[in-house]
Amino acid sequence: MAKLVECVPNFSEGRDNNIIEAIVEEVRKVKGAKLLDYSSDEDHNRTVVTFIGSPEPIKEAAFNLAKKAAELIDMTTHQGGHPRMGATDVVPFIPISDITMAECVQLAREVGQKMGEELNIPIYFYEEAATKPDRKNLADVRKGQYEGFFEKIKDDNWKPDFGPQEMNAKSGATAVGARVPLIAYNVNLGTHDIEIANQIAKKVRFLGGGLRYAKGMGVKLEERNIVQVSMNLVNYEKTAIYTAFEMVKMEAKRYGVPVIGSEVIGLVPMKSLIDCAEYYLQIENFSMDQILEKRIVE
Amino acid sequence: MAKLVECVPNFSEGRDNNIIEAIVEEVRKVKGAKLLDYSSDEDHNRTVVTFIGSPEPIKEAAFNLAKKAAELIDMTTHQGGHPRMGATDVVPFIPISDITMAECVQLAREVGQKMGEELNIPIYFYEEAATKPDRKNLADVRKGQYEGFFEKIKDDNWKPDFGPQEMNAKSGATAVGARVPLIAYNVNLGTHDIEIANQIAKKVRFLGGGLRYAKGMGVKLEERNIVQVSMNLVNYEKTAIYTAFEMVKMEAKRYGVPVIGSEVIGLVPMKSLIDCAEYYLQIENFSMDQILEKRIVE
């Protein structure tokens, strides 16, 4: 199987369809980059684009999207409910298969450098691509937002990693990074008591002393008259799906509530589910190379 | 993800490396056909070749291998321990992903017809590609072997599906078919008593009244001083890996013996393990399209 990397850039435009389509079109133009999804939120005035492919086309597409966004989006007039610092607000690269995080960091660095130099945009590397510990967390990098960056960028501690050393008024600044894929995973409970789902979520999530890479909350499924523990697993290699599932089950016992099912929302890497099969079947010495589909003709 | 089909032809030559290499080379020559494995057995005087790819290149490679085998192997002098009826003895096509069994049957039919017409070899379709119920089982088709076919072929009930209506002395006859992939799966027991493994295998396998698509026997792992129930799952979509695992566990309880692990041998289709994750996690409404790798750029 070929190296596969996912890119999920966020743009500060969620209302003008002509602009949104023109940006998304840049993915379609690159052979080898496959558009998986894009969705816009008018309140947030923001669009999230998801595409996947091998490193070279993904690099090309990521840059071309940012270039188009720099042409078409003017941050001086931007308003929206979601925190943002630039026209191309954030560009994460996510390893999917047969590619290491280090390679994705390298990708982020190359795209960031090119954006800085050719588009004249201040670039900040974040998460796995961060150049300093206090740039790891995107929220910290983006703090102050577009409006605040005209000052923030002058702070010695917040000099951009690439690009101009002063703010780009039209395009703002961009965070470019590499991170593991996030899995949206919900466990359904045989009760309609939302308080029980909330209590379980609190025990399972990192904030409540639970699993390091799990976020969670209780959610009511009105139609089915049940509740669920809705989770985000932000590092499935360290906090596995089965771990989250078993921990919800364990906490549900306290209330005598049965776990009646679970849901995987959206796309997940194959390995995240194969890991679960390995766990429950107690498989010894399994290698992902034993998956026939991994042998696909390149 | 592209349509992926596997082909595992068996040839009646397992001793002469020049001939074996010349046949295998025909796979390497076809762009889009990927050689996964080949292995020869001198006692059996037989070679098994495994390759994978999308239908067109697999069709081309399968025919080219049979053509080369017809040139280089002379059945009039062939001797070996394994039942065989032709130089290219059997050619199964196996659906791996995004391809139906019906499409594999169609592939078998096309390759069989071409072999019959262009290589002048009597062709019998078997398993899912069989044209009559009594040709489904390969052992029934091959009964009498090469030597017996000179008479068998004259029987009205055993007229070839394609090709000449009389035996090809040099190349013999060939069975061409389509079948589901076979999974070799072993469950390890926390005991060194082979009798217990044998008893469990008897209960789990079809022959003993167990699972329809499971074969099994007890095997001793001398090095670890344990035993295992060694199984072949010949239709993982109907008799799943987790079903076999749970049934071994269930039977092991009778002896107070713990299941200490399991092994998947060789290649398995992704779906066979994803099915297990779905079962144990009680996942509702999962679609294989949610697997990121399925979205690979085509």
TrEMBL record, chains A, B:
- Which Gene3D superfamilies does the entry link to? Formiminotransferase, C-terminal subdomain, Formiminotransferase, N-terminal subdomain
- Per the database entry, which stretches of residues form a coiled coil? none
- InterPro entries recorded: Formiminotransferase_C, Formiminotransferase_C_sf, Formiminotransferase_cat, Formiminotransferase_N, Formiminotransferase_N_sf, FormiminoTrfase_cat_dom_sf, FTCD
Query: Quick check: keyword Transferase in the entry?
Result: yes
Q: Name one GO biological process term.
A: L-histidine catabolic process to glutamate and formamide
Matching entries from PANTHER family are given as: FORMIMINOTRANSFERASE-CYCLODEAMINASE
What is the name listed in the Swiss-Prot or TrEMBL entry for this protein?
glutamate formimidoyltransferase
Q: What is the lineage of its organism?
A: Bacteria, Bacillati, Bacillota, Clostridia, Peptostreptococcales
